[in-house]
Design a protein that fits this description.
With 136 residues, this protein is mainly α. The chain contains six helices and no strands. It has one domain. The longest helix has 26 residues.
Length: 136
């Protein structure tokens, strides 16, 4: 019987990819302009508000999310790319979509902003699931 373990290199790489996706997702290349409109800030304000602490918290959060996907894959004995995608979508829909949807509804955030944020995490999770599932 093969003993399954978490591949921490895969988790680390998945977390970095998740962060890089965020940099692209929230840039003017993709959804940055719509996102800034939704949060009612200019590019200058977003840049001024950015700090090393923000990025440290983001990379830690990304690592924890990717670790959680890897842990769920291990706990359910799922080891393939398809399994990684399935678990990532399940986590994204059941936890991110619902949590952010509930909060944003009560905070009266624009629906477009909610969709941009939820889809970022869902796509990031799927990318992480692919990496973790492929690199076992």
């Amino acid at each position: 019987m093969e003993t399954m373990t978490i591949n921490y290199w895969a988790v680390f790489i998945a977390a970095v990819v998740y962060m890089v996706l965020g940099g692209i997702w929230y840039s003017s290349i993709l959804f940055g302009n719509a996102w800034m409109k939704g949060i009612k800030k200019t590019k200058e304000q977003v840049i001024a508000d950015a700090s090393a602490v923000n990025y440290i918290i983001a990379i830690i959060g990304s690592f924890i999310a990717c670790y959680g996907i890897a842990r769920l894959m291990l706990m359910t004995a799922r080891t393939t790319i398809a399994d990684g995608i399935t678990i990532s979508i399940l986590v994204g829909v059941c936890f991110v979509l619902t949590s952010m949807g509930i909060n944003d509804t009560f905070e009266k955030r624009p629906a477009g902003l909610t969709v941009i944020n939820i889809l970022y995490h869902l796509v990031g999770f799927v990318m992480a699931g692919i990496i973790i599932g492929a690199w076992r």
